[in-house]
Design brief:
- The complex is a heterodimer of chains A (487) and B (318).
- Chain A has 487 residues and is mainly alpha-helical.
- In chain A, 69% of the residues lie in helices and 0% in strands.
- The radius of gyration of chain A is 23 Å and the shape is globular.
- The relative contact order of chain B is 0.15.
- The N and C termini of chain B lie far apart (72 Å).
- The longest helix of chain B is centred in the middle third of the chain and has 28 residues, at 144-171.
- Chain B is an alpha/beta fold.
- Chain B has helices spanning 2-26, 29-32, 38-48, 60-65, 68-74, 89-98, 113-117, 124-134, 144-171, 215-234, 248-253, 255-268, 297-317, and strands at 53-58, 78-81, 106-110, 238-241, 246-247, 281-282.
- Chain B has one domain: SGNH hydrolase (Rossmann fold).
- Chain B is globular and about 75 Å long.
- The chains are: A mainly alpha (487), B alpha/beta (318).
- At the A-B interface, α1, α8 and α18 of A face α1 and α9 of B.
Chain lengths: 487, 318
């Protein structure tokens, strides 16, 4: 069930109404659990069985961890949870990748293993809910919270439909207590939630999906495109993936607010970052902090020697790349980001920008120096995205080489002009990208750009109407799934 | 909570009113699907024609290429031409008549080759939404997958399309000359505009009639038709299958495909196949625009061949 579909709108209205009609908290949690499983089964009901199995395992292990007295027992229980969750993930997501690569490696030594890869369907969102479930057992292991004995609440926590398939990846210590406390309807939060959902839908349906129509043919056959066309596709993908994924997060966070849940912020205007390290504090915050807390810091974080710290950074980013997909392109993408982050990790600036700070500084217009930093960071990020989006490593190198050597060719720019002339929707989409940048810059002090509760009703409703009509006119109907569903 | 709901409903009402005003004033559903208004004429005919009826079901090959008055003159049946658009797909086409059948009726299935294959045209969903918005009772004809597709994306796409066309209509300086179908469909559901031999169609290019056989698709269609045939037999309704018209050039190019299609149906279909693809070959000049669409004398020729084939099949049966 895709957030931008009529199905989801009906589903949400029914669940929202029923939820607030129920008085008892336990009934509300039961409703959320059932609704979330229904939501998930819309893709394939068999996926629910896998999620239920891993949830039950972690629920049981959580109770056992809470009851275990000896540290060694606790360690074994945690290991069991890690192996169970990551084993599931490894089987469904990485089995074929490792099998294929092992075959290639073995053949270099003259050994031809005769196994075949399996026809495994990747359950939607498995990477997200697996990490969320893991956070539960790790948190209990660290004695940061007590295990819950309420199965329904736990199932609702793991499967909570707004963030089930593409995050934000919540920590048990943040989200689970919200299931246990009494919830009340919050008018201000609910209205803000709807506004955030509207902005997310705009980004997804008007910008991301239309950009996909522009750049997909170019990325599918980069050999036939000139440098300017490839550069356009490269920049467009940066905005496509941002609008797609942050659009999803906005809808998820906004939707949760309707039920009096507060999910963590996932994006904080990342393209206004002035360094790659800052970018990673503003992009997919829930995953970046997950890896920071559960991988980077346990490895020693920045409390170790500089070479070891560099190794930790590279390992964390590479694993993060692998988390995104079972392909070398993602690993390279992660490694590039790691390399680009290293200088600032090893020789940190005096001031470390935090996601809650205003990106790009407090001035209405950025200084030349700030602008140069932002553009430079954006270019590095764009280059890394090429590996993320390209079908193969060869395609990615072709794209980057051609951009570097052929960017100024007049023929290439003429081809871009001709393409834009042929398809007026592409020009309108690029204008929307420009509008997005301006609006986000102006509203960057706010959690999301439609955070204007103080504005008069007439103006608010006018803005909503303009956005809704823009979605109707330029939107693609919401057919295209969100990019991060595949992870 | 109450304040939230009231404000939400007020805003929703405002949007619905604005959109309704826009659609009533400027929407041009003919541009979405120019033939769709004929759906109501056909469904009315199905409901009111006196039994026994010869009900022709299929796509636009019937809409363009049948003269129902000839059927009524030469047979004892009341003619009902339900053929409209192949994009509505087999499931909908069968469901549309299923509940209305009565003993003594004769159903002639005349599906285009691509419909037998189950090939997608990419616009099926929007046609289904268009058909259901024209007549809400058509919602009962939808299967669960069609419902699901409609809710998941087709309805939103359709709404967007109607919205865009309404806005474009406002911004157009010159009114577009769109032929529509007003006055061009008779009470039986036949499109009569092109029965004139000199008629040409203003838009639409040549489209390959025969497509490569997809045996899986054809077998799935045959299974569905066989279920329909079984259900009809229980109710005393006869079912026959006839091939759609095809122009000589395309038939010669795709002769082998036609043989394969025919063989698959003759081997698997429970209903009698009353003609062969070769029996429905017509000269190229009998077609306009898309190659399933007959015009002028082609319409009479095809109708006559169909009547003869039905007569022969009924004679054999008796």
């Amino acid at each position: 069930m895709i957030f931008t579909s009529l199905t989801f709108a009906i589903f949400l209205i029914v669940v929202f109404t029923t939820y607030w009609m129920l008085r008892r908290q336990s009934w509300r949690n039961l409703l959320l659990a059932v609704a979330s499983y229904l939501f998930y089964s819309w893709w394939d009901w068999r996926f629910c069985l896998l999620m239920l199995a891993t949830s039950l395992m972690d629920f049981g292990l959580g109770l056992a961890l809470g009851a275990a007295k000896h540290q060694s027992t606790r360690r074994w229980l945690l290991l069991l949870s890690v192996l169970g969750n990551l084993g599931t993930l490894a089987f469904f997501k990485y089995f074929n990748f490792f099998a294929e690569n092992f075959q290639v490696l073995a053949s270099k030594f003259g050994w031809q293993p005769h196994w075949t890869t399996l026809n495994i369907v990747l359950p939607v969102g498995v990477s997200f809910y697996t990490f969320q479930a893991l956070s539960y057992t790790i948190t209990i292991y660290r004695r940061q919270m007590q295990p819950t004995g309420r199965l329904i609440d736990y199932l609702a926590y793991v499967s909570f439909f707004p963030q089930l398939v593409a995050g934000p990846i919540e920590r048990a210590s943040h989200l689970l207590p919200q299931f246990l406390k009494q919830r009340h309807f919050d008018l201000v939060a609910a209205k803000d939630g709807l506004r955030q959902m509207l902005w997310g839908a705009f980004k997804k349906m008007v910008i991301a999906d239309n950009l996909a129509n522009l750049l997909d043919p170019i990325y599918n056959d980069p050999s036939g495109a000139g440098g300017p066309m490839l550069a356009l596709a490269m920049v467009c993908f940066a905005f496509q993936i941002y609008c797609d994924f942050s659009g999803y997060s906005d809808i998820a966070i906004g939707c949760a607010k309707l039920f009096d849940f507060h999910l963590m912020r996932n994006f904080a205007y990342p393209y206004f970052s002035q360094s790659v390290a800052e970018f990673w504090r503003r992009w997919h915050i829930s995953l970046a902090t997950w890896f920071r807390d559960y991988l980077y810091i346990p490895l020693g974080g920045n409390r170790v020697s500089k070479p070891r710290q560099a190794f930790n950074v590279m390992l964390t980013f590479t694993v993060s790349g692998l988390w995104h997909g079972a392909a070398w392109n993602f690993i390279i993408w992660g490694a590039i980001n790691g390399l680009a982050t290293l200088p600032l990790i090893l020789w940190p600036a005096r001031h470390r920008a935090d996601p809650s700070e205003t990106p790009g500084g407090e001035r209405n217009l950025p200084s030349v120096k700030t602008l140069a930093r932002m553009v430079g960071t954006f270019i590095i990020i764009c280059c890394a995205w090429v590996f993320f989006r390209a079908r193969t490593f060869e395609d990615a190198t072709t794209i980057l080489t051609r951009i570097a050597t052929d960017l100024l060719s007049s023929g290439g720019w003429a081809a871009v002009g001709a393409m834009l002339d042929d398809e007026s929707i592409h020009i309108r989409t690029l204008i929307h990208v420009g509008i997005l940048v301006v609006v986000e810059w102006c509203m960057r002090r706010h959690i999301h750009p439609l955070d204007f509760a103080g504005l008069g009703r007439f103006w608010r409703w006018l803005i909503y109407t303009v956005i809704i009509w823009d979605i109707l006119y330029h939107g693609t109907g919401g057919v295209r799934p969100f990019i991060y569903f595949q992870f | 909570m109450r304040r939230f709901i009231v404000e939400f409903l007020l805003f929703a009402l405002l949007q619905i009113s604005l959109l309704a005003a826009l659609f009533v004033g400027f929407s041009d559903l003919r541009r979405v699907s120019p033939f769709m208004p004929a759906l109501e004429i056909k469904q009315k005919r199905l409901e009111t024609a006196s039994p026994p009826r010869m009900i022709l079901i299929g796509g636009s090959n019937l809409f363009f290429g049948i003269d129902s008055t000839m059927i009524e003159r030469q047979t004892d049946y009341s003619a009902v031409n339900m053929g409209l658009l192949r994009g509505l797909r087999l499931e909908y086409i069968l469901n549309e008549i299923d509940a209305q059948l009565c003993p003594g009726d004769l159903v002639v299935i005349c599906l285009e080759y691509s419909t037998l294959n189950g090939d997608s045209m990419g616009e099926e969903g929007q046609l289904i939404v268009s058909a259901t918005t024209r007549r809400l009772s058509n919602l009962r004809l939808l299967t669960w997958p069609q419902w699901r597709a409609m809710l998941d994306h087709d309805a939103a796409e359709y709404l967007g399309m109607v919205f865009r066309q309404s806005i474009q209509k406002i911004s157009e300086r010159k009114k577009r000359e769109d032929p529509g179908i007003e006055g061009a469909v008779n009470d039986y559901g036949d499109l009569t505009r092109y029965h004139d031999p000199a008629a040409t169609m203003p838009e639409g290019g040549d489209q390959r009639t025969l497509v490569r056989v997809r045996a899986d698709g054809v077998k799935a269609s045959v299974r569905r038709i066989n279920r329909f045939v079984d259900s009809c037999r229980d109710r005393g309704v006869a079912v026959m299958f006839a091939w759609p018209p095809i122009c000589r050039t395309h038939f010669q190019e795709g002769n082998e495909q036609a043989i394969e299609f025919e063989q698959l149906l003759r081997d698997n279909l429970k209903a009698p196949v009353i003609c062969s693809p070769a029996d429905m070959v017509f000269e190229d000049e009998n077609f306009i625009g898309r190659s399933y669409h007959l015009r002028g004398t082609g319409v009479q020729l095809r109708t006559q061949r169909l009547i003869d084939a039905v007569d022969a099949a009924l004679g054999e049966k008796n």
